[in-house]
Amino acid sequence: MIRGIEASRSGMAVEQLRTDVLADNIANMNTSGFKRATATSVEFDRMLIHRMGDPTDPRSQEVGTLGNGSRVDQVVVDERQGDIYETGRALDLALEGPGWFLAQRPDGSLYRTRNGAFRQMADGTITTAEGYRVLMEAPGGLVPLVVPGVEPTFQADGTILADGMPIGRLALADAAPETRLHSRRLEASNVDLAKEMTDLIVTLRAYQVNQRALRVQDETLARAVTEIGKV
């Protein structure tokens, strides 16, 4: 009985996390470059059950296997390409193909994003929507992209131009030879609202099933304690 309660509890925990992931997908369906995620689950290792040893019983003591519920295996990011649409804004960039824009957080760590809605600060520093400094490739490594006094333009291979002159190449992570940069465009999220809502309904139903099973087992255990004990 206690094992059944634990199996139901673990099932509810899995569906709760899956609901959180789906809710995050739906909340970011209008975020440029957002990639939907999926929570996958696996079954806990099964237990092999044996009867208590009885030397007078010639039958096999093995009863069978017992499930122990489920657990979240991993949250997988779906990196499929989103639709690319035109904005007309010079600092809006979209990647077609694999790859991520690279930026630098205030603590110096690297930040990867597909959201190319960049901004130019008063000193010419190009930043992401979150305010992190966009990076470019330089002979000494990666450096912040700073273009004072002029709005930069970008070519398909990532080359950065200032007043028509190349000043470097935009830093990209995990890009492939076929990756192309689109200027004055953004990549939409790859979230399909109809699919997310369908998955959310299925997840909520699975949560309710585990919830009912937990309630039935709890009621049965309560009766065993309060009624059978009186006999």
UniProtKB/TrEMBL annotation:
<dbReference type="InterPro" id="IPR010930">
    <property type="entry name" value="Flg_bb/hook_C_dom"/>
</dbReference>
<feature type="domain" description="Flagellar basal-body/hook protein C-terminal">
    <location>
        <begin position="184"/>
        <end position="225"/>
    </location>
</feature>
<feature type="domain" description="Flagellar hook protein FlgE/F/G-like D1">
    <location>
        <begin position="94"/>
        <end position="144"/>
    </location>
</feature>
<dbReference type="Pfam" id="PF06429">
    <property type="entry name" value="Flg_bbr_C"/>
</dbReference>
<keyword id="KW-0282">Flagellum</keyword>
<comment type="similarity">
    <text>Belongs to the flagella basal body rod proteins family.</text>
</comment>
<dbReference type="Pfam" id="PF22692">
    <property type="entry name" value="LlgE_F_G_D1"/>
</dbReference>
<dbReference type="InterPro" id="IPR053967">
    <property type="entry name" value="LlgE_F_G-like_D1"/>
</dbReference>
<dbReference type="GO" id="GO:0071978">
    <property type="term" value="P:bacterial-type flagellum-dependent swarming motility"/>
</dbReference>
<dbReference type="InterPro" id="IPR020013">
    <property type="entry name" value="Flagellar_FlgE/F/G"/>
</dbReference>
<keyword id="KW-0966">Cell projection</keyword>
<dbReference type="InterPro" id="IPR019776">
    <property type="entry name" value="Flagellar_basal_body_rod_CS"/>
</dbReference>
<dbReference type="InterPro" id="IPR001444">
    <property type="entry name" value="Flag_bb_rod_N"/>
</dbReference>
<dbReference type="InterPro" id="IPR037925">
    <property type="entry name" value="FlgE/F/G-like"/>
</dbReference>
<protein>
    <submittedName>
        <fullName>Flagellar basal body and hook proteins</fullName>
    </submittedName>
</protein>
<keyword id="KW-0975">Bacterial flagellum</keyword>
<dbReference type="Pfam" id="PF00460">
    <property type="entry name" value="Flg_bb_rod"/>
</dbReference>
<feature type="domain" description="Flagellar basal body rod protein N-terminal">
    <location>
        <begin position="6"/>
        <end position="35"/>
    </location>
</feature>
<keyword id="KW-0969">Cilium</keyword>
<dbReference type="GO" id="GO:0009425">
    <property type="term" value="C:bacterial-type flagellum basal body"/>
</dbReference>
